[in-house]
Design goal:
With 275 residues, this protein is mainly alpha-helical. The chain has a single domain, classed as Rhopdopsin 7-helix transmembrane proteins. It contains ten helices and no strands. The longest helix is centred in the C-terminal third of the chain and has 31 residues. The radius of gyration is 18 Å and the shape is globular. The protein starts with a helix and ends with a helix. Keywords: Membrane, Transmembrane, Transmembrane helix. InterPro entries: YndJ-like. It holds the Pfam family YndJ.
C-alpha cells in the first residue's frame, strides 16, 4: 500500500495543488502555483526516504509551504469580506493542505501525533490533498458558475463542512466520522450531479475533450463515495468493510485520477478556452 499511496500523494503535490491554484484568483495564489514544484520536490523526497531526520526535515519544507498557503486564507477574507458559500469552499481549499503537511511531518518522524497510528497519518496526507483541497475547490468553482442555485450553494457548503467533520471524527469516535462521511458524500454527489447535468453538456457543445473530462470526473464520484460510506459505516457499526489497502487502490486511486485530475484539467481548459 505504501508505494501506491506515495504515488497518489505525489500526484497531489506536483499536479493537483499547483493546477488548482491557477484556478483561484486572489492574492498570492499565482506566485504559490509557480513556486509549488520546489515544495513538492521536498515533499516527494520525504515520502520515499526512510523515517528519520532527513525525511522529517524535507517534510517540514513541504509543511511550511502548506502553512504559507493557509496564511493566504485570512488575507483573502480580509480583502473580499465575503463568506458566501463559494468563498467558504475556496478558503477551505487554501487551508486544508496544511493538515496534510502536518500529518506528513508527524508520520515521517515516526511521531504518533495525537496518538494516531502512523498508517492513519500516512492516509491523512492524500485525503487532505483530494477530499480537502480539490473537492472544496471544485465545489467552489461550481458554485461560482451558478451562484443562485440552491444545489450549488449546498454543495459548496457541505463539502467543506463534511471534510471538517471527518477530521473532527478522528478525535471523537467512528460515529462522528460516519456523520462527516455522510455530509461529505452528499456534497460530492451534488458536485457530480451538477457537473454532469450542467457543465458536461455545456462543455461538450464547445469542446468535446473538456466535456468528456467533466463526464469522467462526475461519474467517478458516484462509485468512489459509495466506498467511503461503506468503509465509514463498517467502522462505526462493526459491519464487514473494505481494508485500508483496498480503499487506497479503489476509492483513493479513483478519486485522484478520475475525479481530481480529470476535473481540474476540465476546469483549466474551460478557463483557457473561455476566459
Amino acid at each position: 500500500m505504501t508505494a501506491l499511496v506515495n504515488l497518489i500523494v505525489m500526484l497531489g503535490m506536483f499536479v493537483v495543488i499547483p493546477t488548482g491554484l491557477t484556478l483561484i484568483d486572489g492574492p498570492g495564489t499565482g506566485r504559490a502555483a509557480r513556486l509549488w514544484p520546489i515544495a513538492a520536490t521536498a515533499g516527494a523526497l520525504a515520502l520515499w526516504l526512510p523515517r528519520g531526520p532527513g525525511a522529517t526535515a524535507l517534510g517540514c519544507g513541504y509543511a511550511g509551504a502548506t502553512l504559507a498557503l493557509a496564511a493566504l486564507a485570512p488575507l483573502r477574507l480580509r480583502l473580499t469580506g465575503s463568506l458566501a458559500p463559494a468563498e467558504i469552499a475556496t478558503l477551505t481549499a487554501l487551508v486544508t493542505p496544511s493538515v496534510a503537511g502536518v500529518a506528513l511531518v508527524a508520520e515521517r518522524s515516526g511521531h504518533r501525533l495525537f496518538g494516531f497510528d502512523l498508517r492513519i497519518l500516512a492516509l491523512t496526507v492524500p485525503h487532505f490533498h483530494f477530499a480537502g483541497f480539490t473537492a472544496a475547490l471544485i465545489a467552489g468553482l461550481l458554485c461560482r458558475t451558478s451562484p443562485d442555485r440552491l444545489a450549488a450553494r449546498a454543495a459548496a457548503l457541505s463539502v467543506p463542512v463534511g471534510t471538517l467533520l471527518v477530521l473532527a471524527g478522528y478525535f471523537i469516535d467512528d460515529w462522528a466520522q460516519l456523520l462527516g462521511a455522510v455530509v461529505l458524500t452528499c456534497g460530492m454527489w451534488l458536485v457530480g450531479l451538477l457537473t454532469w447535468r450542467d457543465l458536461r453538456s455545456r462543455a461538450c457543445s464547445r469542446d468535446l475533450l473538456t466535456g468528456r473530462l467533466f463526464a469522467v470526473s462526475s461519474a467517478v464520484l458516484a462509485a468512489t463515495m459509495v466506498l467511503a460510506l461503506w468503509w465509514a459505516l463498517g467502522r462505526a457499526a462493526g459491519f464487514p468493510h473494505p481494508t485500508l489497502t483496498w480503499m487506497a487502490a479503489t476509492h483513493g486511486l479513483g478519486n485522484a485520477l478520475g475525479f481530481a485530475l480529470c476535473g481540474l484539467l476540465a476546469w483549466r481548459r474551460t478557463k483557457e478556452l473561455h476566459p
